[in-house]
Amino acid sequence: FLFFLACIFIPFNKILGAVYSSRQHLAFLSNQPCHLNNYGRLQLQRSSTSLPMVFDFFKKRATEGIDQLSKLSDAASRGELGKGLTEAAAYTAQTNRAFASGLAKSRAKLLNDLDNIVNNEGRDVLEDLETLLLQSDLGLATTEDIMQEVTSLRLDGERFFSKQDLMAILRGKLLEALRFNESSSKIRFASPLATDPKKKLSVLLLMGSNGMGKTTTIGKLAYRLRTEGNQKVLLAACDTFRAGAVDQLEIWAKRSEVECFTPSETAKIPSAVLYGALDYAIKGEFDTLIVDTSGRLSNNDALTAQLAKMKRIIQKRLSVEDEEQDGKVSPKPNSDVPHETLLVIDAAQGRMALDSALQWNKEIGLTGLVLTKLDGSARGGSVVAISRELQLPVKLVGVGEAIDDLRDFNAETFVDSLLGIGAAGADSGNKTDEGSQLANRLNAMRKARDERASAIPPAKSDVATSSSSSRIPDLDDFVAAEAAIKKKSSNANRKKKRARDKK
Known about the structure:
- The protein is of the alpha/beta class and 503 residues long.
- The chain is built from 20 helices and twelve strands.
- Helix 12 (245-256) links the parallel strand 4 and strand 5 (259-261).
């Protein structure tokens, strides 16, 4: 952004020189070579070496920065620098708008209920807030964490939080619930430096019940891998149980412009189709194989067993070493594959999908979640509940019906869109630094809480047992004191209510 602003003050004859001097730094960020062509435009040489970082948020932004810089230099060469700056600024907000639009229903319901809570004087704010959080499908564990934080941060029993205070607490606790290890939140791929076709092939196994949007997600993911990662992608149509499933996947393969391996007369069952697809992918030196599986319920033992068998086939076919058992040498299962086992969940189901997800995680072993149909649901909070209780990261989110509406999941962008905060919120007039302001406000409230806790005098029993030193009360002491204040305040409120009723 600063570079774009600087371009306004750089003389026209030095713009291309500035672009050229910055190209090496941008190439380092994106880990991809770049050069200036004969027309002075900055070009990026895409290669498969960047495949493991296709879904790395910051690295992807660096690559996009090179593309935008190229467009900017092109506009400057035509004498349209102002127009180029406008287009670059519009592109920066594209992802935020997609999340804000997809979470519109969830955000409208949550903020409307929050306004009602803050504006309803004389009611029990804590009780209403707890009801709101549970109705938003945030889950019991997250709701309890938020309520405990709200209780401990209150100054006294008579004062309630402002809306901004509540927003700061909600934002902080939701981010804590969604943030996982950085490496686990990205799609994992095979090493692009491998020369062995078995080691080079990435296998992504997608599963879920019928109607969750699994096949659609596969098509959108294949499109992203081909266009953004320059990958050679193969789809495996292993859903042989549902009528029309193979045809549907073939349609998505054509839309994404990738190949699709389908059942044949000699390979009709899912395991046979998968084995043939693995052979074809290895011989064809494909970069990624995406496997479509039959829609299933968690209580369908036969289909679950079929899925476990498919996972074993992948591990044996991509074995890179042998083992000896009972005097016989056989391929040793490769535990590093499939690289991803993703469960596709319809966001509209909310927490109803949690029980099935828990069972599949136990039987198969999941590595991440894909949330679909987020644009048509008012249950965006279910993302928090499901991810937290499964202890699995959400890796991809479907926010629309278009082929490019499959987005990388970013916890901060998601939470800000859900709460209508900053640039990710629905209101374009929101301040871009609103998120950092709320984070600072939460830190200030927590600091004040700790100072109040340390100022509480020690209990008499502690003074009697230790006259030389006083014990510093911990958070439990503070919560107990807050509970006593709350009880006293509640009694006072009841007296006021009786007086009003009598009057």
